[in-house]
Write a structure and sequence with these properties.
Layout lengths: L6 E2 L14 H18 L6 H57 L3 H6 L14 E10 L4 E2 L6 H10 L1 E10 L4 E4 L2 H18 L5 E4 L26 E6 L11 E6 L11 E7 L2 E6 L2 E6 L5 H18 L10 H5 L11 E6 L3 E5 L7 E4 L6 H15 L5 E7 L15 E6 L5 H22 L14 E7 L1 H7 L3 H15 L1 E7 L8 H4 L4 E4 L5 H8 L3 H4 L9 E5 L7 E4 L5 H11 L17 E2 L10 E9 L4 E8 L4 E5 L6 H9 L5 E4 L4 H10 L6 E4 L2 H6 L3 H17 L6 E6 L5 H7 L3 E4 L5 H6 L14 E4 L2 E7 L22 E4 L3 H11 L7 E3 H7 L10 E4 L1 H6 L1 H10 L1 E5 L4 H5 L16 E6 L3 E6 L6
Parallel strand pairs: 1-3, 5-8, 5-9, 6-7, 7-8, 14-18, 14-19, 15-16, 15-17, 17-18, 22-31, 25-28, 25-29, 26-27, 27-28, 32-34, 32-35, 33-34
Antiparallel strand pairs: 2-4, 2-11, 9-10, 10-11, 12-13, 19-20, 20-21, 23-24, 23-31, 29-30, 30-31, 35-36, 36-37
Helix pairs in contact: 1-2, 2-4, 5-6, 9-11, 17-19, 19-20
GO molecular function: ATP binding; DNA binding
Protein name: FtsK/SpoIIIE domain-containing protein
Organism: Microbacterium limosum
C-alpha cells in the first residue's frame, strides 16, 4: 500500500462567545438624565434617562450580529478544509485502486494491458482476483472530528477502498456455487485469469475436460508436465456433480446451488446474481461483485493465448515446424537404420524405427492427426532412404483415402483398403510368404539377421491405418501380426500400427515387441497408461490448434517426449516424388489383385491336350499360375449365381473346337445328344445350367435324363467324354451329377448362404464380379470369349411323316389335328377322318388306300377293338400332347424320345418296335 500520504482533519472552529450587556454605557444616560432633572426640574431632562436602555439594546444586537458573521466565516473555512481533504483522500484512494489493479489485473485488465500477460510481478502469482469489493485502504486520518458528522464520515470513507480488486490465495483451491450458468461463467473467468497470469511452463491444466468446456483444449496450458517443467502446478477442473480428478495440485470447481462442495477448495464464492456474490474463507466473509465470462469470450482468449505461446516459444510443442525443416535435421538418414525427425519438441525429435523399434504403435482419437502423422513418417522415410533400403506395404482401413497419394512413391509396393474385398486376405497370405522368402534368402546367405546382409534385402515396413477395423474384418490377422512382431526384427519386417484405441485391440504379444509408442490425444486414461505408462496422452489438448500434438516414448526414454507433428501437404509430397522418381521400383512382396477381365487370347498356353481356363492367384507362393481343363480328365462343375459368368466359361471351353457337344436348354437336341452319348460318347460334353435344363423336362424325362448323364459322367475320363457342367444350385438330382466330377469352380453368389450351399468355404465368401471364383483352392479369374463363340447347334427337324398304311392318330384336339393334317397333306389324296366319321363310313379293308383316323384317347378307349385292328393291320401315331396314351392305350413301358409339345411333333409307334419321334404337322403359328 502507498504510505507517502499524511492526512489530518482540520481543527473545528470554536463557538463564538456570547456578547456582554453594556451596563455602564447604559447607566451613563440614565444617571445624566436624572441629574439634569434634579438640577433643572424639567421633565424633558428625564428623556435622556430613556436613551440608556436603548443604547444598551442596540449594542447587544450589534454584538450578536457580529458574532453570527464570524461563526459563518469559520464554518466556511472549515468546510473548505474538509473538501480539500476529501479530494486529497479520493486521489489517494484512486492511486491505491489503480496500483492494485495494475498489480492484480482481472480478465478485463489483461485485455486493456496485453503486455501484462505472463509477466512476472511480485505477489501476482500467489493470488487471483475473485471480484471487486470493499477492502481496507491503509490510510490513517489524524485530528479530532470534534463531533462533526462530515469529519467522521470522511475518516470512515478514508479507511475503505471501494470496488477494489479482491484477491485470495488460489493454491488452496477455489470453488464457485450458484445457479448453473452463473457459476460456470464465474469459474470460466477465474480459469482464464489464472492462464493470463501464469505461463504454460508454470501452470498445466490436467484431468478430463468438462462437458461444454472444449475451448480449454485450445489453451497452451492444457496437458501434463511432460517437458520436464517440474515446477508447474497442475490444475484440475471439477464440474457440477463431478469430482475433480486427484491428479492435480489445485482444484477449481463449480457447483449448482444444490451441489456438495469439494472439500479441497479453501475459498468459496457464493454467486447470488451477476452483480452480487459473497466470498467465504474460513470464518471470514466479504461481499463482492464477481467477474463472469461467456464461452465465446473464453474460447477467443484461449486461441489468443495459444498463438502467443507459439510466437514466444517457437521451439515449443505449440509451434508447428515445417516438415521440410525436419528433413534437414541432423541425424536423419543414418545408413542401416530408419532415422527421421518426426516432430518438433524443444528440438527436432528423432525416431529410429530400427533402433527404437522394431515396431511402433500409434494411437489417438479421431481428429487427433493420426493419419497425418503416418503420412509424414512414410514420406520422410522415403526421402531419407532409397528403395534398396526400405519398402512399404500400406493398409488403409478408413475408406481408402489416407494413403492414396502415397502410391506414387516408388518405395510403396502396394496399398490395400477396406474397399478391396478379399485384397486384405491376399495380403495376409503374401506376408506369410514374404517371411518364408526372407528366411530362405538369409539362410542362403549364411546370416541370421538382416543387419548382417547389407543391401541383400530392403527392410519392409507394414503401415496400418486403423488396426482395429482391420482385425475386426480379419481376426486371423492378429496371429499374423503377432508372428511378425516376434520375428520381424531379424527378417527386416517392421510394423507401424495406427489405432484409435489400444486396450482390447492390440494384443500384448504385439505391444511387448513394439517399444516405440506414439500417442496423440488418447480416449481415456486407461488407453494412455496402456501405451505410455502415464495418463498424459489423455490430457493432451484437442481441437484443430492442437492437431498433431503427440507424446513419443522410445525404448530408451524414461518418460514420453512431447512433440508437434507437422503435416505433409500435397506440395511436400510432390517434391519427394520428384526427388525419388529415378529410383527403381522394388520387387513387390505380393502381386496385385487379379484383373477383372481376361480375354481368351490373353490366357497362358497350357499344352496341346489342355484347354486354358483362367489365371489363379497363389499369394502364399507369391505367384500366379494358369489353370486349365485337360482333355481326358473326368471334368469340372461350375457353380455360380445369375450373372456370375458360368455360361462364359462354357463358351470358352467350346471355343477351342474339341468336338464339343453343348447342351444349353431343355429340348429335343439335349435329349438326343445324351441318348447318342450312350453308344457314341462325345469327346467333350458341356451342359449349361444343368439344374434349369432338367427342370425344363417333365418329372419322368428329368429322372431318365439324370440317369443317362450320370452314366456318362461315370464313364468320363476312361474312354468317355470330359464333362463340364454349370449350375446355380447343388441339390436333388443335380447333387448326384456334381458328386461324380472331381473339380468344382465356385463363382459369385449374392449371399453367403448360397455360397456355402454351393460347396464354397464361408470364410472365402465375397461379392465377386463375373468370371471370378475359387478353383482348386485358389482364387481364379476365368477367361472371357465373345457370345458368338461355341454356341450350341440347333437340333435337326425330325422327318416329315406320311401314312403308308391305315393309321390311328391319338390326339387331345382331334379337330385341330385333322384340320392341320388336311392342310399339310393337301393333294396327297390321303383321307383324314374323325373317329365318329370313320365309324359311320365303315371299316377299311387292308387292301384299301391308306386312311387316317383321328380321335381322342377316350374315344379309342371306348372303341378298343378298332384300335387293336389298326395296331395289327396298320400303325398308330400319338400326338406329343398326350404322351400318357403310349402307356395307357398301347402298353408301352419305355419312355419315347422327348418331343416338344405344340410343335407338330408326334410318336410313330409299332408293336415290338417302340416309338420314334416324327413331324406330324407344322408347328402352330
Amino acid at each position: 500500500m502507498l504510505t507517502d500520504d499524511v492526512f489530518a482533519l482540520p481543527v473545528a472552529p470554536p463557538s463564538p462567545r456570547r456578547p456582554a450587556v453594556p451596563v455602564l454605557a447604559s447607566l451613563a444616560p440614565v444617571l445624566g438624565g436624572v441629574a439634569l432633572w434634579l438640577i433643572t426640574g424639567s421633565m424633558f431632562a428625564l428623556w435622556f434617562a430613556v436613551l440608556g436602555p436603548v443604547i444598551a439594546l442596540g449594542g447587544l444586537l450589534d454584538s450578536l450580529r457580529a458574532r453570527r458573521r464570524e461563526r459563518r466565516r469559520h464554518e466556511r473555512e472549515y468546510a473548505l478544509a474538509l473538501q480539500s481533504l476529501r479530494e486529497r483522500l479520493d486521489a489517494s484512494l484512486e492511486r491505491r485502486r489503480t496500483a492494485l489493479e495494475a498489480r492484480h489485473p482481472d480478465v478485463a485488465g489483461f485485455a486493456s494491458a496485453p503486455d501484462e500477460v505472463w509477466r512476472p510481478v511480485p505477489e501476482r502469482a500467489a493470488t487471483v482476483i475473485v471480484g471487486r469489493g470493499d477492502r481496507e485502504s491503509g490510510i490513517a486520518v489524524g485530528g479530532d472530528p470534534a463531533g462533526r458528522d462530515a469529519a467522521a464520515r470522511l475518516r470512515a470513507d478514508a479507511n475503505v477502498l471501494r470496488r477494489a480488486p479482491v484477491t485470495v490465495p488460489w493454491r488452496d483451491g477455489l470453488a464457485v456455487r450458484g445457479p448453473g450458468p452463473l457459476a460456470e461463467a464465474v469459474a470460466r473467468a477465474l480459469l482464464i485469469q489464472l492462464c493470463l497470469i501464469h505461463p504454460p511452463r508454470a501452470l498445466r491444466i490436467v484431468g478430463t475436460t468438462p462437458e461444454g468446456w472444449g475451448w480449454v483444449d485450445r489453451l497452451p496450458h492444457r496437458g501434463d508436465d511432460t517437458e520436464g517443467d517440474g515446477g508447474a502446478l497442475r490444475l484440475c477442473l471439477g464440474a457440477p456433480r463431478e469430482r475433480a480428478e486427484d491428479s492435480g495440485d489445485v482444484v477449481l470447481a463449480w457447483h449448482d446451488e444444490a451441489g456438495a462442495l469439494d472439500p479441497r477448495c479453501a475459498a468459496l464464492i457464493e454467486a447470488g446474481s451477476p452483480l452480487r456474490a459473497e466470498l467465504r474463507i474460513g470464518t471470514v466473509t466479504a461481499a463482492l461483485e464477481p467477474e463472469a465470462l461467456g464461452s465465446a469470450q473464453a474460447a477467443a482468449i484461449a486461441s489468443s493465448l495459444a498463438a502467443r505461446a507459439r510466437a514466444l516459444h517457437p521451439s515449443s510443442p505449440e509451434a508447428v515446424a515445417a516438415v521440410r525443416d525436419l528433413w534437414r535435421a541432423d541425424g536423419v538418414g543414418v545408413p542401416g537404420r530408419l532415422v527421421v525427425a518426426l516432430g518438433m519438441g524443444r528440438t527436432p525429435v528423432l525416431v529410429d524405427l530400427v533402433g527404437d523399434g522394431p515396431h511402433a504403435v500409434v494411437a489417438g482419437v479421431t481428429g487427433a492427426g493420426k493419419s497425418e502423422l503416418l503420412t509424414t513418417w512414410i514420406t520422410s522415410l522415403c526421402r531419407a532412404y532409397t528403395t534398396t533400403e526400405v519398402t512399404f506395404l500400406l493398409a488403409d482401413f478408413k475408406g481408402g483415402v489416407s494413403f492414396e497419394a502415397l502410391s506414387a512413391l516408388p518405395h510403396v509396393t502396394g496399398v490395400i483398403t477396406d474397399l478391396d474385398g478379399d485384397g486384405a486376405d491376399r495380403a495376409i497370405s503374401s506376408l506369410r510368404a514374404e517371411m518364408r522368402r526372407r528366411e530362405r534368402i538369409l539362410a542362403g546367405a549364411g546370416v541370421r539377421h538382416i543387419a548382417e546382409a547389407g543391401l541383400l534385402l530392403p527392410r519392409l515396413v507394414v503401415v496400418v491405418d486403423e488396426f482395429a477395423a482391420l482385425v475386426s474384418d480379419l481376426p486371423d490377422l492378429q496371429r499374423v501380426f503377432t508372428d511378425i512382431a516376434a520375428r520381424g526384427r531379424a527378417l527386416g519386417i517392421h510394423l507401424i500400427l495406427g489405432t484409435q484405441r489400444v486396450t482390447g485391440v492390440v494384443r500384448e504379444g504385439i505391444l511387448a515387441n513394439a517399444p516405440l509408442r506414439i500417442a496423440l490425444r488418447a480416449a481415456d486414461d486407461a488407453d494412455s497408461r496402456t501405451l505410455l505408462g502415464t495418463p498424459a496422452a489423455a490430457r493432451l489438448p484437442g481441437g484443430e490448434a492442437a492437431r498433431g500434438r503427440a507424446l513419443i516414448r522410445r525404448a530408451a526414454d524414461s518418460s514420453p517426449v512431447i512433440a508437434q507433428i507437422p503435416r505433409t501437404v500435397a506440395e511436400d509430397l510432390a517434391m519427394v516424388v520428384a526427388e525419388v522418381a529415378h529410383q527403381e521400383r522394388p520387387r513387390a512382396s505380393w502381386l496385385p489383385p487379379l484383373p477383372s477381365l481376361i480375354r481368351a487370347g490373353e490366357l497362358p498356353a497350357q499344352g496341346e491336350d489342355t484347354i486354358p481356363l483362367g489365371i489363379a492367384d497363389d499369394p502364399a507362393a507369391q505367384s500366379r499360375l494358369g489353370v486349365g481343363l485337360r482333355m481326358g480328365e473326368r471334368g469340372l462343375v461350375v457353380v455360380g449365381g445369375a450373372g456370375s459368368g458360368k455360361s462364359a466359361i462354357l463358351r470358352l471351353v467350346a471355343s477351342h473346337g474339341r468336338e464339343a457337344t453343348i447342351l444349353t436348354q431343355a429340348g429335343e437336341a439335349a435329349w438326343d445328344a445324351v441318348a447318342r452319348g450312350a453308344t457314341d460318347p462325345p469327346r467333350l460334353l458341356l451342359v449349361d445350367d444343368v439344374d434349369r435344363l432338367l427342370a425344363g423336362f417333365g418329372h419322368d424325362y428329368a429322372a431318365e435324363l439324370t440317369d443317362r448323364l450320370e452314366a456318362l459322367i461315370r464313364r468320363a475320363g476312361t474312354g468317355g467324354p470330359t464333362v463340364v457342367l454349370t449350375t446355380r444350385r447343388v441339390s436333388g438330382a443335380v447333387a448326384r451329377l456334381v458328386e461324380g466330377l472331381p473339380r468344382r469352380a465356385v463363382l459369385g453368389f449374392p449371399s453367403r448362404a448360397e455360397h456355402v450351399a454351393a460347396g464354397g468355404d464361408g470364410h472365402s465368401f465375397s461379392v465377386r464380379g463375373p468370371g471370378r471364383g475359387m478353383l482348386d483352392g485358389l482364387e481364379t479369374q476365368f477367361g472371357w470369349t465373345p457370345h458368338d463363340a461355341g454356341e450350341a447347334e440347333a437340333s435337326p427337324e425330325p422327318p416329315a411323316w406320311l401314312p403308308a398304311r391305315h393309321t390311328a392318330v391319338i390326339a387331345r384336339d382331334p379337330h385341330g389335328v385333322r384340320a392341320r393334317l388336311r392342310e399339310a397333306w393337301a393333294g396327297t389324296g390321303v383321307p383324314v377322318l374323325l373317329r365318329a366319321d370313320a365309324a359311320a363310313s365303315g371299316d377299311a379293308a387292308p387292301e384299301d388306300p391308306p386312311r387316317v383316323v383321328v380321335g381322342e384317347p377316350a374315344h379309342w378307349q371306348a372303341h378298343w377293338r378298332d384300335l387293336q385292328r389298326t395296331i395289327a393291320e396298320g400303325q398308330v401315331v400319338v400326338d406329343a400332347s398326350c404322351p400318357d396314351a403310349l402307356r395307357t392305350l398301347l402298353g408301352e413301358r419305355d419312355l419315347p424320345p422327348w418331343a416338344q409339345p405344340g410343335a407338330g411333333r408326334a410318336w410313330l409307334w409299332r408293336a415290338g418296335r417302340g416309338a420314334r419321334r416324327v413331324l406330324l404337322t407344322p408347328a402352330k403359328r
